[in-house]
Amino acid sequence: MSDSGAVRPWVVIRQDDNGNRYRVGSYATRAEAERVAARFDSGGHKQLYLVERINGTGGASNGI
After folding, report:
1. Cα angle at 33 between 28 and 39, to 5 degrees?
2. What is the pLDDT of residue 47?
C-alpha cells in the first residue's frame, strides 16, 4: 500500500487521434477500470480508451 491510501494498479488511458496518451483515472480492480473505459467509449468521442495495469514504480506497463 502506498502512503496516499488505497492501491489502484489499474488505469484508464485516453489516446487521441494523434497518438497522445493521457491517464484519466486509476482503479483498484480491472473490472472497475473496464466499466469506466466502456462508459467513456459509449459517449461518442473519437478517442480510444484503454485499460492497463501499472507496474510497481507507479508507471503504466508501457511507459506512461
Report:
1. 145
2. 85
